[in-house]
Design brief:
Number of domains: 3
Number of strands: 9
Largest sheet: 5 strands, mixed, barrel
Oligomer: single chain
Shape: elongated
Number of helices: 5
Helix content: 40-55%
Strand order of the largest sheet: 5-6-7-9-8
């Protein structure tokens, strides 16, 4: 019995030894694995450091390349400025700059020939007022059209009758409406009452913008040429002359030609200013194109 117990004890004592050896061997494996892991991590870190160094080198190279390009551009600009300064100095001295060599040449004058148009004409249809939604807008639109024509110095406006344009009222004449309003706004203010009577087409002329041409002169503005209207004032017997209202401080102009009353004319005054000793001005009737041809003044369409 005693031997059996001893055997059992020995077995029991040998078991923990075996277990200890097994546990020790597992710990060693874990230690080996732990030792191997940091080695792999170090390799990846080294590779990343290399890549970062390479990227930094590439950035430095690119910066150096950009700096060299800027230096080359600055140098090129300096040479261009130097050439321009030399050319300017040579031109002042009457010399011609040809790079490294200079030739004595007299400075040449460049003459520009600009062709002037004798007259400008435009053509518009009477249906141009079709898009206007009211009579007020029609009048305002025609004033803007006249103002545009005066800014571009149009001499003639041709109005075409558009047969496809149908008006709401049979009594309304689109062609006559456009023509009458264009004539009204082109006429100087001091002549409108004498040349235009009351008409339904001119109902909203107060909404029109002025075109402000050279022939729209005020009473205190002097010009050698003026627009006027022949008055119904009889002249002396045997005197073939007419009296013209030119809008100057109640002083009329006398022209040496017999004309029908109510006729619009262009007058060239003989005086050179407002200060006159006589009670009236004197002048001659000229063509409406003469102010533009001789004095380069746009005189309406």
């Amino acid at each position: 019995m005693i031997e059996s117990e001893e055997k059992e004890v020995k077995v029991e004592e040998s078991k923990p030894k075996f277990r200890v050896l097994v546990e020790f061997s597992e710990d060693e494996e874990e230690e080996e694995e732990v030792k191997e892991e940091p080695k792999e991590g170090n390799k990846w870190q080294d590779e990343e450091d290399k890549w970062a160094d390479e990227e930094e080198e590439e950035e430095v190279e690119q910066d150096n390349w950009e700096i060299e390009e800027e230096k080359a551009e600055i140098k090129q600009r300096g040479t261009i400025l130097q050439d321009l300064q030399e050319e300017n100095e040579m031109f002042k001295k009457g010399q011609q700059f040809t790079g490294n060599k200079t030739q004595l040449v007299a400075p040449q004058k460049i003459e520009y020939t600009r062709k002037k148009l004798k007259s400008i004409s435009i053509c518009i249809p009477d249906s141009i007022i079709d898009k206007c939604q009211s009579s007020e807008l029609r009048s305002y639109f025609i004033s803007q059209l006249a103002r545009t024509c005066s800014q571009f110095q149009v001499d003639e406006i041709i109005i075409l009758k558009d047969h496809s344009y149908k008006t709401k009222s049979l009594k309304f004449d689109a062609t006559g409406y456009v023509a009458r309003n264009l004539q009204y706004i082109e006429t100087p203010q001091y002549l409108r009452k004498a040349l235009f009577g009351i008409h339904p087409d001119l109902k909203y002329t107060g909404l029109m913008n002025p075109i402000e041409c050279k022939h729209h002169l005020k009473a205190d503005e002097w010009c050698q040429y003026r627009e006027g209207v022949v008055l119904n004032r009889p002249a002396r017997k045997g005197d073939e002359s007419s009296w013209v209202d030119i809008g100057l401080y109640m002083k009329q102009c006398k022209v040496s030609i017999s004309l029908q009353a109510g006729t619009r004319v262009t007058v060239k005054l003989d005086q050179e200013g407002f200060e006159i000793t006589e009670k009236f001005f004197t002048g001659t009737v000229v063509s409406s194109s003469q102010p533009k041809d001789e004095a380069n003044l746009y005189w309406g369409y």
